[in-house]
Amino acid sequence: MARERRSATGHYADRVSNSRTDVLRAARDILREHSLADLSMRRLATELGVRPNALYWHFPNKQTLLAALADDILGAVVIPASDLAWDERLQLLATGMRAALLDVPDSAEVVSSSWASGLSTKAITADIVAAAHAGSLSLRDAEAVSTAVCQLVIGLTIEEQTRAQMERLGVTGPSGRNFDGEFVDGLTIILDGARTRAGD
């Protein structure tokens, strides 16, 4: 197996070839060490030690790369067991989704744009709908709960990650906001509303 090392010419320059997993991992590294603005196909190719056109074997353009990256990031969310209470499953999915996004800087923006483009699978939304539907909510109401949960998680995380970057660059000082508290409060209201609707 080819030895892997970080180097001035690319993080994975010792690899003879790069798999789809290698490309996505390198993209994550760029987000962690730099920002979404620095994630270009050319920069990614440099990190991998290949020519830019080599990346098109896996991804025909940057949009499909970002969509795959969004799916990969949210793929880290652990899906709760189906025998748990439906509202507990919703809570675990929401907190797991938030944790997965916070683990990779700018990932909430990646997910948001990829979902808007229609290129991402949005697989986690099906899990959220299934959990809500298990609570005797109609399919329409379950889908509404999924929308509310995802908008809370993604929207709030975009704000938190953007603010963190601004503070890191010295653009602004600490906001004093308790993003964790805002998330818990927002999720509590969504779950309370879902429980009320389920009891109707």
Automatic annotation (TrEMBL):
Regions crossing the membrane: none
Coiled-coil spans in chain: none
Matching InterPro entries: Homeodomain-like_sf, HTH-type_TetR-like_transc_reg, HTH_TetR, Repressor_TetR_C, Tet_transcr_reg_TetR, Tet_transcr_reg_TetR-rel_C_sf
Domain HTH tetR-type: residue ranges: 17-77
SUPFAM superfamilies from the UniProt entry: Homeodomain-like (SSF46689), Tetracyclin repressor-like, C-terminal domain (SSF48498)
Any one GO molecular function term: DNA-binding transcription factor activity
Classification via Gene3D superfamilies: Homeodomain-like, Tetracycline Repressor, domain 2
Residues annotated to bind DNA: 40-59
Keywords carried by this UniProt record: DNA-binding, Repressor, Transcription, Transcription regulation
One Gene Ontology biological process: negative regulation of DNA-templated transcription
PANTHER family (UniProt xref): HTH-TYPE TRANSCRIPTIONAL REGULATOR RUTR, TRANSCRIPTIONAL REGULATORY PROTEIN
Protein known as: Tetracyclin repressor, C-terminal all-alpha domain
Protein source organism: Gordonia westfalica
